Amino acid sequence: MLWFMPLNILITYIVGSSLGWIVLKTTKAPYDLWGLVLGCCAAGNLGNMLFIIIPAICKERGSPFGDADACYRQGMVYSALSMAIGAIYMWSYVYNIVRIYSSCTNSEGEKLDNSTENITPMEETTEKLSNSRMRPLLPLNGCSAVKDHLNHFELDCSITARKPQVQLLEKIKQCFQTFATKFNLRKLFAPSTIAAIVGFMVGIIPEFRKLLIGEHAPLRVVEGSASLLGEASIPTVTLIVGANLLRGLKGTRIQLSLIIGVIVIRYIALPLLGVGIVKGAIHFGFVKSDPLYQFVLLLQFALPPAVNIGTMTQLFRAGESEYSVIMLWTYALASFSLTFWTTFFMWLVK
To answer: What is the rounded distance in angstroms from the CA atom of residue 192 to the CA atom of residue 194?
Structure first.
């Protein structure tokens, strides 16, 4: 019954990055910030925000989601699933967008230097041409004129007939080579993506779950260590964002129009489109009639940008200070935006 949730999160990523591309084309942003802006428009903070909002709403008096305990248990299931699926999309989709644009901008200078080194001066070329000697073509010995011309004609015809086929095979080969270099599987599957896939396997396969999860599990120390490291990662990422913000406030290249574009996409355009997408899915019977489930699907469109994008920009050294400035303004407005959209979505699914 939860099959629509992965599709819904994927739609948020695709629609958000498409709207971000329109903003980049409209504002004519610097090329090295394209990956950052596309990532901020595509990825929402599915993990932390849902784990904060859902328990608070379930414990409220007069909640439209029924019993508080049942709402809390079911809401944690939806939030955990959203966080796991969002982590896979984040570290496969957004990670590679940031990686590709950062690698293009970093290698631009090297390509320019290499191209200038390979240019031959015009004087040297003309000198080589003047020193070259023209010699007459030697006739072929021991060949019949008529027979030789026929053989040459057959050879030329066979070459011209096979030429388009050879060009097609070369183009297909070049396309495969380009695909292999652009989408390297080692780079495509980041460590966080592999970790999320392993987590799904532990949750789905009962043998692994009994071995690792629970107070009486033989390898419960693995779960404890992973939980300890996971809790420490949140303040670590916050410290990185704060350190980059100090540099960003002193001077940054990001335009005000880009910040406004990201805010409009995340807090106005995506939630409105999300209402239409989720309502259409309900109309066609793709989504069950659980109000809490519908509320979580709608809320996935209205969240602020993901904090993990800061880790990616820090990793590739592309737009760290600019990211911190975007985070400052989007999270400053998140309290007002989330309050409004949460109230509206609760009224919509009631």
So the answer is: 5
